[in-house]
Structures are given as C-alpha cells and as structure tokens.
Design goal:
Keywords: Carboxypeptidase, Disulfide bond, Glycoprotein, Hydrolase, Lysosome, Protease, Signal, Zymogen
CATH architecture of the largest domain: 3-Layer(aba) Sandwich
Radius of gyration: 23 Å
Subcellular location: Lysosome
Order of helices and strands: HEEEEEEHHEHHEHEHHHHHHHHHEEH
Signal peptide: 1-21
GO molecular function: dipeptidyl-peptidase activity; metallocarboxypeptidase activity; serine-type carboxypeptidase activity
Number of strands: 11
Number of helices: 16
Catalytic activity: Cleavage of a -Pro-|-Xaa bond to release a C-terminal amino acid
Length: 516
C-alpha cells in the first residue's frame, strides 16, 4: 500500500467519499462514514415535514424519516473566545411520534462528517427503539457539514475560516442545542438525554458524555475508534483486520490480493502492459506509468470499503452490494499461483462485484470509490489538525504493500493543502486516551469484522464503561435498522444496549424523585 493510500486512511473516517476536487494525497479512503446521498431508500417510505426556524412549514416529501427540520441559531461560531459574537444556523431533525412527556427520554444523535439527513435515514436502530423508550429523536448536524456552515460559501475558503472546525466546538454546539430544546419544548426540560453516534459520531457521543455528563445520562458509541491515536494501538491493526476479513471469507483470497501488487508492477513496466491492464480491468481511461500507484491505492481502498460494509444482507451504502460481499468477491480469488495476467483478470472480477454488481457500469473509474462526495473537505481538514490516526502496513501481517507511518509526510501534505500542521497528541490530551476509567455510563459497541474496531474499546473498563462485541458485525451494524437477516450477535448487542439505556433512564427518574 502506497504513501498516498495511507494518508488517505487518515482522511477516511467511517465514509469513503471520493472527490476529484482534492489533491490525490488528500482524498478520502474509507472515511469513518459512508456516502450521504445513497441511491436507493428502504422499500417502505414515509412522509415527513420540513420546517425552518421562524418560518412556515414546507410541503412534505416521501422519505424514510418522519421529522421536523429546524435551523437553530447556535450562540457562537467560537464557544471558547470572547471577542466575537458571530452566530450561524445549525440544522437538526426532530421526531416525536413516540415521545411521552411523562417518563420519556431524548435520544440525541451526535452528527458526524456529513449531511444529517443521511444519518437520520441510516440510523434505523433509533427509530426501532423510540416507542420502547418513549423517546424523542434528535439528529444534530455537525458544524461545517451539510447545511450547517458557519461562514456559508466561504466556510472552506482557508484555514482562518476553518479554524472553528474542531470536535470541541461541535460538542459545545450539541450542549447549546440541548439547552435550547429543553428550554423551548414543553415537557422536555426534565427528561434524560442519551447521546448516540456511530464511527466519528460514536466518538463524539462518548466524548460528549465525558465532557458534559450533566447533560447526557449516558452514551452509545458504536464503532468508535477513540484509541486510534498516537501509539495507543499498533498502527497496523486496521489493515490487519481488513486482511483477516478476506482470509476468513475464502481460501487463498488474501494471498491472491497480496500477490496482485507485484503482478501489477511487472505488467506496468511496458507500454503494451499498461494497455493490457487498462483493458483487463475495464478502466474508463488509459493507464500511464504515473497512474500505477494511484491504481493500486484505488484497489486497496476498494478492499477497505468492502470490509467496512460486509453486511449479512444486500445493501446500497457505497455501492449496490450483495449479502456478505467479501465472500462473493473471494469466489474469484481462489488461486494465487497463476500467471500475472490470469491473476489480474480475477482481480477485475472481484472489483466488478463492488463497482458493477448491478451490471449497469460500462467501465471502472479509478477516481471514484463511492457514490457520494459530501463532507470530504471538512474531514480532510480535521484529519490535518486534531484527528490524526496512524496507519501502516508491512505486507506480512496484512495483504497490502509495505508502508510505514510517516507523520512528516502527512504534515507536509496538510500544510500544502490547508496551511496547517497536525497536532497528533491533542485528542488524547483533550479526551484522556486510555485513562477514562473515571467516566461512567458509556456503551462501546464494535463489530469484529469492522477494521475500525482495532482502535475501539473492546473490553469492559468498569461496570459502567462497557464493551459490546458483535462477532458478525461490520461498521456499526447495530445502528442500522433491524433486518430479518440480522445475525444473532447483533440482536443480542441491541438488546444489551437497550437494557443499559433503560437503566440510565430509570436511574435518572429515581434520582429526580428523591430530589423532590
């Protein structure tokens, strides 16, 4: 795996967003999150009303969610300075179909690196448990994403405008929004709030409970790699898990991929080889010798994306995919001991599962790995400032070309792109790294198939900092809507998560009763 691809991992937290607008080294690979404009929705759609703060309701449209869409005038662009009073509109969604003023709760989704409507549509777990928990659902959009742009069209103009894009500012936004909701919604003032999020949003949910324990009684942090920083976990753990997923899904599958890199190198040494590769891989544009590293990074990113969305049923996150897509891919990668040309023809068949399972694609574009592009600019800046995650490969424990972690390379890329340099120690300074045992009431859930689990909390820390492991789970499978093909491990995980949330709610009301 090349230098560029490893840098891309930093820019890829939970949603692979590919974009042509960024320099190659600052494109997103396997971003913590997934595209914000999926090409299809669940079969059962519902009407929802769209409302804007201090305006009349707009007409409803068919959609998966029933919610009210509001813009909340959050107090400040900068919560931690005193020489500015600039404000901006923060978007959030509210659904109260099952909310009860007596004995109810508020489930608060801590929005991450994308449009909040996408998170509403793809966090079916909250909708599934709303009635049981008598819950109001709130989905808060993260500043600098979706429509919550502090400086409008100038929000990404330069590092001066981006200076307020930090996790700390986002958490303060959430705190101010919760205060606003409790102040303005009759019956909400004395109700418990539970923070919920997945991937970067899961990190924010955990950090919100840590930083604002008086505002959230607990947090569900799904697939939240809060330890993927500095040397808290080995830099190679992410790609090692990707490799394990492929190795377990078919005999010689990972070994076929490991041998494909040298095959590409050999075949690309000549003009005729480049021409053959272009045709064999059905690429949209002819390859040149300068494209080879980019080609290998694109293929690597594809394997990473498949590991993230290796779900037990057909899905349409990054691309239309079959159930257990890695198993389908590995059907074409059973024999690594073949000629270079045959091996790469097999690689094409495997890639075609990801990029053309629908059969509608005429050629493969190595500049694209996913269907969405929203959020990439903001995330690339965050990965260049405080969200600095070390990644490396060695070609032995994993199926990728060797590459070491090089902070200086990342720093130089970031300075060239944004005029800033990363602070790799800041997240652990701010949120404690592994020294978090003084906190309470956080459930950390991780799927063993998810490569981000390598940076997550996978063992109980205390009786109230609990780890839930989903043996057959990819990236925050537990936050997805219930499905008839859900494995037992995710059903048990959700049941345990709900049990913890009920306990937090009960304890809140017990304490409130004693105070009165």
């Amino acid at each position: 795996m090349g230098r560029r691809a490893l840098l891309l991992l930093l820019l890829s937290f939970l949603a692979p967003w590919a974009t042509k607008a960024l320099r190659p080294a600052l494109r997103a690979l396997g971003s913590l999150h997934l595209p914000t404009n999926p090409t299809s929705l669940p079969a059962v759609a519902k009407n929802y009303s769209v409302l804007y703060f201090q305006q009349k309701a707009l007409a409803g449209h068919l959609h998966i969610c029933i919610f009210q869409l509001n813009h909340y005038k959050t107090p400040l662009v900068d919560h931690f300075g005193f020489n500015t009073v600039k404000t901006f509109n923060q978007r959030y969604l509210v659904a109260d179909k099952y909310w009860k003023k007596n004995g109810g709760s508020i489930l608060f989704y801590t929005g991450n690196e994308g449009d909040i409507i996408w998170f509403c549509n793809n966090t079916g777990f909250m909708w599934d448990v709303a009635e049981e928990l008598k819950a109001m659902l709130v989905f808060a959009e993260h500043r600098y994403y979706g429509e919550s742009l502090p400086f409008g069209d100038n929000s990404f103009k330069d590092s001066r405008h981006l200076n307020f894009l930090t996790s700390e500012q986002a958490l303060a936004d959430f705190a101010e929004l919760i205060k606003h909701l409790k102040r303005t919604i009759p019956g909400a003032e004395n109700q418990p709030v539970i923070a919920i999020g997945g991937s970067y949003g899961g990190m924010l949910a955990a950090w919100f409970r840590m930083k604002y324990p008086h505002m959230a009684v607990g947090a569900l942090a799904a697939s939240a790699p809060i330890w993927q920083f500095e040397d808290l976990v080995p830099c190679g753990v992410f790609m090692k898990i990707v490799t394990t997923d492929f190795r377990k899904s078919g005999p010689y599958c990972s070994e076929s991929i490991r041998r494909s890199w040298d095959a590409i190198n050999r075949l690309s040494n000549t003009g005729s080889g480049l021409q053959w590769l272009t045709g064999a891989l059905h690429l949209c544009s002819p390859l040149t010798s300068q494209d080879i590293q980019h080609l290998k990074d694109w293929i690597s990113e594809t394997w990473v994306n498949l590991a993230m969305v290796d779900y037990p049923y057909a899905s349409n996150f990054l691309q239309p995919l079959p159930a257990w897509p890695i198993k389908v891919v590995c059907q074409y990668l059973k024999n690594p001991n073949v000629s270079d040309s045959l091996l790469l023809q097999n690689i094409f068949q495997a890639l075609n599962v990801y990029y053309n399972y629908s059969g509608q694609v005429k050629c493969l574009n190595i500049s694209e790995t996913a269907t969405g592009s929203l959020g990439t600019l903001g995330w690339s800046y965050q990965a260049c400032t405080e969200v600095v995650m070390p990644f490396c490969t060695n070609g032995v424990d994993d199926m990728f070309e060797p590459h070491s972690w090089n902070l200086k390379e990342l720093s130089d890329e970031c300075f060239e792109q944004w005029g800033v340099r990363p602070r790799p120690s800041w997240i652990t300074t701010m949120y404690g790294g592994k020294n978090i045992s003084s906190h309470t009431n956080i459930v950390f859930s991780n799927g063993e198939l998810d490569p981000w689990s390598g940076g997550g909390v996978t063992k109980d820390i205390t009786d109230t900092l609990v780890a839930v492991t989903i043996s057959e789970g990819a990236h925050h499978l537990d936050l997805r809507a219930k499905n008839a093909l859900d494995p037992t491990s995710v059903l048990l995980a959700r049941a345990l998560e709900v049990r913890h949330m009920k306990n937090w709610i009960r304890d809140f009301y017990d304490r409130a009763g004693k105070q009165h």
